[in-house]
UniProtKB/TrEMBL annotation:
Residues 2-70 form the HTH gntR-type domain. The keyword Repressor applies. SMART domains: HTH_GNTR (SM00345), UTRA (SM00866). GO terms for biological process: negative regulation of DNA-templated transcription. Transmembrane segments: none annotated. NCBIfam families: trehalos_R_Bsub. This is Trehalose operon repressor. The gene is treR. InterPro entries: Bact_HTH_transcr_reg (IPR050679), Chorismate_lyase_/UTRA_dom_sf (IPR028978), TreR (IPR012770), Tscrpt_reg_HTH_GntR (IPR000524), UTRA (IPR011663), WH-like_DNA-bd_sf (IPR036388), WH_DNA-bd_sf (IPR036390). The lineage of its organism: Bacteria, Bacillati, Bacillota, Bacilli, Bacillales. It comes from Niallia nealsonii. GO terms for molecular function: DNA binding; DNA-binding transcription factor activity. Keywords: DNA-binding, Repressor, Transcription, Transcription regulation. PANTHER family: HTH-TYPE TRANSCRIPTIONAL REGULATOR TRER (PTHR44846:SF12), MANNOSYL-D-GLYCERATE TRANSPORT/METABOLISM SYSTEM REPRESSOR MNGR-RELATED (PTHR44846). The keyword Repressor applies.
Length: 238
């Protein structure tokens, strides 16, 4: 059974997404929420802290909890979530277009980065992500074929993570991420609706199974006006 503060967090999260608590308004006070959910203020504080950590609210001293604008898609920096999961959670209409799909040998640079054997093959996939009729993400995926066999274009249009976890019954555990802001390439301008933007946010993901096997490298290129990358950091003494 879930802890009560997690249940309350999920209910408040759903209420924010549904528009019950619009952006730039405040949530009910801690006392009001404690009465509504029949719990203690301490439990409510735990729920509100999670909302704040995930970028839904800003706790204002003496003013309560301000609901933040969620129009930008929120990518959790320290989390590992698929595009399909993110779009569904945000309630957006999304489509994935597979621009290219092939099985081949990795380049020497990629083979070294992914710790591949000389005879290992990779899936090379180029996907464009469309949200609300705008093409705003370009994903370049490189997946070790021996770990993820029988991949198809239809699987890539749906969710590779879903295929790995629910059809191959493998556990995706963690990722190492690198963030940069770069000038868009000709490919970015060709495949994405860049609308004159002169920068693109690049997220490089090295993704591992729970046995610490690196099975996927993805370079994900995001139009900068549509996303905010959120995380929670706690100060500690060095």
């Amino acid at each position: 059974m879930k802890n009560k503060y997690l249940v309350i967090f999920e209910e408040l999260e759903a209420a924010i997404y549904s528009g019950k608590y619009p952006a730039n308004t405040t949530l009910p006070s801690e006392n009001e929420l404690a009465e509504q959910f029949e719990t203690s203020r301490e439990t409510i504080r735990k729920s509100l802290n999670i909302l704040a950590q995930k970028g839904y609210i800003q706790k204002m001293k003496g003013k309560g909890s301000l609901v933040l604008d969620l129009q930008k898609l929120q990518f959790p920096i320290s989390g590992l979530v698929s595009f399909k999961e993110l779009a569904e959670k945000m309630g957006h209409t999304s489509t994935t277009f597979v621009e290219s799909f092939s099985k081949q040998k990795a380049s020497p640079r990629l083979a070294k980065e992914m710790q591949l054997n000389p005879d290992d093959l990779i899936w090379k996939i180029l996907r464009v992500r469309e949200i609300n009729k705008e093409k705003i993400i370009l994903d370049k995926d490189y997946i070790v074929e021996k770990y993820v066999p029988d991949l198809t274009v239809d699987i890539c249009k749906n969710s590779i993570f879903d295929y790995i976890e629910h059809h191959l019954n493998l556990k995706i555990s963690f990722a190492r991420k690198e963030f940069t802001v770069e000038q868009p390439t000709e490919e970015d301008y060709q495949l994405l609706d860049m609308e004159g933007f002169q920068a693109i946010v690049v997220v490089k993901n090295y993704i591992y199974f729970d046995n610490a096997t690196l099975f996927q490298y993805t370079e994900s290129r995001h139009r900068p006006d549509k996303f905010r990358f959120v995380d929670f950091a706690r100060r500690s003494e060095l």
